[in-house]
Amino acid sequence: MKIGLIQQLNVSDRAANIDKLTRNIRQCARQGADIAVLQELHNELYFCQTEDTSLFNRAETIPGPSTELFGALAGELGIVLVLSLFEKRAPGLYHNTAVALEKDGSIAGTYRKMHIPDDPAYYEKFYFAPGDLGFRPIETSAGKLGILVCWDQWYPEAARLMAMRGAEVLIYPTAIGWESTDTEDEKERQLTAWITVQRGHAVANGLPVITVNRVGREPDPSAQTGGIQFWGNSFAAGPQGELLTVLPPDKEEIRIVTIDKARTENVRRWWPFFRDRRIDAYGELAKRFLDE
Length: 292
Fold this sequence. Notes:
The chain is of the alpha+beta class and 292 residues long.
């Protein structure tokens, strides 16, 4: 399974972003990728830095313009694409939704982001309802893809449920970076934690992890903050958490990584975590908090 990671810097011109994405997807296909993964909300700037009702006009239906455009490209190139879109499901109901497009351009499946953050510069609860499709891998001709989105990557339960349903790889389209007032020490702690927790998902589930992040500075339209410096560092980890590739922190790049499915199977034989899980003792995990 060859997967293309597309780490891109976005601008305010949506058409220019899509044109660049198209060129980058073509490059992935030329380099032999079976799958190309795009970053979170890849068509535009990350608009959740402010709360603005006019921005709901940017949402689209699924199927819709983006699935049609990228679907035609997937069909032309014979490549599976992982998209991340601002979905308009119904009047007043919107989601942060990932879409897997099959090699013939059809929609293989969708995943609606389950964990929705609400932090300074990441006001996603204003825009997105929590997902309601559960944690279900999407079957494609290139493999069974456990697609999750950004904030989901901090939750071991999400990764575990995808693995339990047979995902062959965990994929995280992402938009994460530093706020302008963060100290250098704090920046390093955040980045290290972000990489570490996802490598932990790889180890705990015996699965490769693919994470594709934005890069570059995007201004805060309200001027209340200095904007977000997206930290790039898109990466792929193997089923023992080993880093297969890490992209730069400060520039756009495309990288193709090869996932060895036979190695994933062997790692699960060496480290049989699923065999030894005490499923009889985990019932309380479904509770919000334990007082005793």
